């Protein structure tokens, strides 16, 4: 499966400009790279202008859901749609939407863990539904959003559910860039799955984002890493056969003693 990741500079508070940017990127990357699956970063419609969500967030996933569905179908690609600022009833969520090649919505997830350091609790509501895997091109996959990366229980749950690829969508600040890298490597190694991440670049309201979107294999090898500063496209073809090989060679899942820690 060939991936293309968009390491994007998000214009905070301007969803229309961000949608135009994503559309242009998808059209270009399809022509130049012919990916099977593309990945976008966290909150790419609104950015972290959280105080403006009443005017900028989607309503029940629209218009982003129709926008991404149409792009997926037109270009025959899977779109792991990062996440968006999204209003449901009178609450705001950080919501991920995943579309298959037919433009069908195959997964929807609201970020569970809200970030105290970014004051998310003041503006957002945490998701109330458990994570589960979804399937794209016959491959089981999972997705978590940014701060969720610090809670290994989520990734382990998805690995136990059979995920071979874990997506991490983020606007991770440069101030904690070492954590961004180390935690992704740890999740890939301990769960023996591919980690494919998309982080933002640029600065909003004094917070600089770390970039360094990554593709890490289940052995912990960094196959590709984006720039720390610049927007760009990161591509790689995943050899999924190495998941079962590594799980055979280092049989962590067979060695678990869940009754000792669950
Ligand atoms: N957008 C985020 O979830 C940022 C997470 C973060 O800043 C951290 O975990 O550190």
UniProtKB/TrEMBL annotation:
Residue span, CN hydrolase domain: 1-240
Gene Ontology molecular functions: hydrolase activity
Keyword Hydrolase: yes
Keyword terms: Hydrolase
Pfam families hit by this protein: CN_hydrolase
Keyword ATP-binding listed: no
Source species, domain of life: Bacteria
Residues annotated as transmembrane: none
Similarity-based family: Belongs to the carbon-nitrogen hydrolase superfamily. NIT1/NIT2 family.
The protein's name in its UniProt record: Hydrolase
Annotated organism of origin: Lentibacillus populi
